[in-house]
Amino acid sequence: MRLSHFFFWAAAGAAAVTLDELARDVERVESLREIKDVTATFAQLAQFGRYRDMADLFTDDGVLLWGNISVTGPEAIGKWLEEDAGDMNGMIRPGSLDTLVLATPLVNLAADGKTAKGRWNGWRFQGGGGKTRMQGGIWENEYAVVMEEGGRWRWRVRVMRYYGLYEGDYEKGWRNVGGRDFGTVPEFHYSAEEAGVPIPKAVGTPGAGGVTEGEIGRRIEDLNDEDEVRNLQHAWGYYVDRRLWGEVGELFGSHDWGVVKVDNVGVFEGPGGIREGLERWMGPEGLSQGVLNEHLIFDTVVKIRDEVDPEVPNAEKMADVRGIEIGLIGDQDKGTASWRFSFFQNSFIKRNGIWQFLNVTIAPLVVANYSDGWGNGGVMPRSTVAPVFLDYTTRSTKKPSTQTTSTDSLPELSRRLSRSYAYEGAESISNAYGFYIDFIDGAACSLMAAIHHPLANKESPFAGFYHTRQRVLDACTASYGTSSRPTRSGISFHWRPQPVIHVSQDGRSASLRARLLQPATDKTSAGTIRGGMYHDQMVLDENGSWKLWSVTIDEFYWAMNNWTEGWGGVEVRDKNAPDQPPPRDLVRQFPPDLWLNEMEGEREIGFMGGRGRYVSWPEIQRMWFGYRNPVSGGVPKDGSYWPGCVPCYQHKPEWGMTKHSWQEPPTGPTLVRAMFAAGNGSSEWDDGTFISVSVTPGPGEVVEGVVRLVGREIELEYELSEADGGRVTFELPRNMSGGFHMLEATFSGSNRLNPGRDTVDLTLPGGPGSLLGD
Ligand SMILES: *[C@@H]1O[C@H](CO)[C@@H](O)[C@H](O)[C@H]1NC(C)=O
Ligand SMILES: *[C@@H]1O[C@H](CO)[C@@H](O)[C@H](O)[C@H]1NC(C)=O
Ligand SMILES: *[C@@H]1O[C@H](CO)[C@@H](O)[C@H](O)[C@H]1NC(C)=O
Ligand SMILES: *[C@@H]1O[C@H](CO)[C@@H](O)[C@H](O)[C@H]1NC(C)=O
Ligand SMILES: *[C@@H]1O[C@H](CO)[C@@H](O)[C@H](O)[C@H]1NC(C)=O
Ligand SMILES: *[C@@H]1O[C@H](CO)[C@@H](O)[C@H](O)[C@H]1NC(C)=O
Ligand SMILES: *[C@@H]1O[C@H](CO)[C@@H](O)[C@H](O)[C@H]1NC(C)=O
């Protein structure tokens, strides 16, 4: 790996990174995380009507701009929020609901690291006292860091600017605010180039922070851990949506103490109990026609604990997660459809280097059937689980790591930090895409194209893939022309929430799965919601900017027909209708470089524009996964596994990032298993003197890297090559002392594979110092 390619500017070029420079970079990534956490906490507090606490997240001179309202200072902001909500404040009374979600952040830190700007999509569902209200739009916020006593910094909101774009009550649905055409697009705080640079190059020399390498090591390790835990939480959601109970169970690892508590529903314990409970609550494995089981996850805050809970066995580290869930649930054949507004608070442990679920608490606040809405209380008692709000302000005050050793050099720490920065870069450029496509026209086409790498490929839904940025641009202008559209009567939004992001070992590339969540609004008719899935890749370019490398859009998995019927009343597609509609005129005039319907194999079967008969909600389309189970490492049981860049995997390998100096990001954990291997009888040794170590990657992935077996008396090492097939057998030295030995087997990882480890316990006969066989 070449140091010159790390993002962190301090490390770029020949100059070696200093500890102070690295400390500054750590603080900048932590800042970005805290800004997202402040905003998510603002949303989480609204669910409980805690408007004063929301106002306390502002700076003393903070301003709330809500449409044409302007309020200054926490005191006034709290009062305004409270009055604006009125009865619809989420407090315990029938029908009272205030679920606000702020999603799809694109945050840019200022060069001095002291202020930031962030764009968000937001939705608010309120009810109470018989009334309902829905609002949606764009937030353009400003943030500032405030020094507190003891030198601790804290991020606060300086300006919260809400551009309301659609609103309405439940009965009539939402429409454009004011029933007008949209004119100007809510101003973007960033340029296309800046969208890929959430943290710009720092200016000046860093102050002497007085931090140690151990502290910095721990803080970077926690940032890396946050990424894994957030992925795990988001991956949970995708498995639950498809009722993949086998996959869900595997997220608890192989131990037997997992707990899922669904308030007012039940407490499910252990692998069998969890599966049975979830089946009873949500239905059997898999989806059948007409079943919608969407659980949209928003505002996830991850906190890595300082200490592990001594009650929990084998925990190397622990973490807590807090978030908001909006459920769109139903079974069209049974005539049921409901909304479920919940919060969740879950705990996680790290074991053998792999994060896994420990327990889950889901607390439904309002469950309402679609036909009645939530204005009069819903159909279930409100949860009485006391919500926790995680303290996200402690990242910079961690004790030194016990896992970071003095051999972790500064360049190595810098590499690890660049992987967490990559997570941010990938999320940022992903959301940049959605924000541009929302307001697509000739002008937005150039912005949308500009966030692609010159060698990128991008799908045009129902048609195919265009390869190179120029072709992506030309395809867009073929559809939308080159000039900006002065007004538009409606918008279909392209939210990309709930990302699962896998970052390469060198922090220069990433694979991302995110929802396509598409609320639509119009001037005259009530809005609708639809859902699809994105499978993307992104790369860090030579100018230090994140760019899209590959964009695949699987749509639609489900859709509302209209507001009145919701997701319940959608007619099944006529069995006698043609398998596929004729291609759009535009794509015939400007043919893709790879048509969906020429992609042999299973990948595009059932998609509109793809192969075979297209599948349309309420029929159930196959769901693809680009990653393996984040805990068990297994591929989806039905084989719906398609890693990396979608057109590259089987059809256009030459479009792949590894052909252009980027590493292919890992697809999941690398499982390492160390176990006894019997001798072959030729030795005077007893069985159990051989330890075999196997390293299991994903399908088609080659294991190369160093395996080490280390105990108090031994240190054995072997370099695996492709020919070893991921397995090595070590013969233990004959002079090891009798008694108990704990051996740790580690795999170093490679350009493609994550590192991994396992332990094995060994008791040799004979007392201390005696030779075996004596
Ligand atoms: C502010 O906007 C609301 C509705 O959007 C409107 O009713 C009100 O008249 C406006 N107030 C001012 C001062 O423009
Ligand atoms: C809506 O809820 C009521 C109970 O409040 C129930 O009687 C009715 O069947 C539900 N309708 C649907 C479509 O689920
Ligand atoms: C989950 O585990 C954490 C940590 O041990 C514990 O504090 C919490 O009470 C547990 N929650 C449930 C629902 O078991
Ligand atoms: C990097 O920046 C230079 C100068 O602006 C530009 O010519 C080049 O195309 C950029 N590289 C990429 C990959 O966009
Ligand atoms: C909604 O769709 C249904 C068919 O699913 C149709 O019968 C009904 O007229 C539509 N309602 C409106 C308001 O468009
Ligand atoms: C048995 O194992 C030993 C040590 O690994 C090896 O040298 C020997 O060739 C093996 N014998 C047979 C018959 O496989
Ligand atoms: C076992 O023998 C090796 C050399 O053959 C030596 O390096 C090692 O120190 C010995 N270990 C013990 C525990 O005596």
TrEMBL record:
Pfam families, alphabetized: SnoaL_4
The secretion signal range is 1-16
This chain's protein is named SnoaL-like domain-containing protein
UniProt xrefs under InterPro entries: NTF2-like_dom_sf, SnoaL-like
Top-rank taxon: Eukaryota
Q: SnoaL-like domain: from which residue to which, for each copy?
A: 28-158, 222-359, 428-551
Q: What keywords sit in the KW lines?
A: Signal
Does Ribonucleoprotein appear among the keywords? no
Annotated region described as Disordered, given as residue ranges: 752-774
